[in-house]
Amino acid sequence: MNIKIKTTTLSLTPAISEYVEKRMSAISKFFDNDTTVKCDIELAKTTNHHNKGDIFKAEVHIVAKDKNIYASVEKDDLYIAIDLVRDDVVREIKNSNEKHRSSVRKGGAKIKEIMKNTKSN
């Protein structure tokens, strides 16, 4: 999986880069067979005017040949935002896979029913 990290109003340190790579490796197992997967990650500090703390945003956009997944999370800690956006992406992928599996099974059941009806006639 090709991971590209972009930062906005935030400097990309090796620690942050390593953390993102480690967390996104959990997503790459869903795309083992697809070599065209592109994962764009944007990390940003959204505001500078809060009285207490910063607000960080993590966005992930994954484009594969049969999937287009986007997730965004805003939190007061960058590392928590990265973890939560990864969880959202994993949830989206699992839902997509389950919907696909369900539609294939429904199609198979419908074909089986048609075959039954043609044999009995």
**Global outline:** elongated
**For this entry, what is the oligomeric state of its chains?**
single chain
Main β sheet profile: 4 strands, mixed
CATH topology: Double Stranded RNA Binding Domain
Name the average pLDDT: 85
Question: How much helix, percentage-wise, in residues?
Answer: 40-55%
Strand and helix order: EHEEEH
Number of domains: 1
Strand content: 25-35%
Number of strand elements: 4
What does this structure look like?
The longest helix is centred in the last third of the chain and has 43 residues, at 78-120. This protein has helices at 14-28, 78-120, and strands at 2-8, 38-45, 56-63, 68-75. α1 (14-28) packs parallel to α2. The mean pLDDT is 85. The radius of gyration is 20 Å and the shape is elongated. With 121 residues, it is an alpha+beta fold. The chain starts with a strand and ends with a helix. It has one domain (2-120): Double Stranded RNA Binding Domain, CATH 3.30.160. α1 links the parallel β1 (2-8) and β2 (38-45). The protein is built from two helices and four strands. Helix content is 48%, strand content 26%. The chain has a four-stranded mixed beta sheet, covered by helices on one side.
In short:
The chain is 48% helix and 26% strand. It is an alpha+beta fold and 121 residues long.
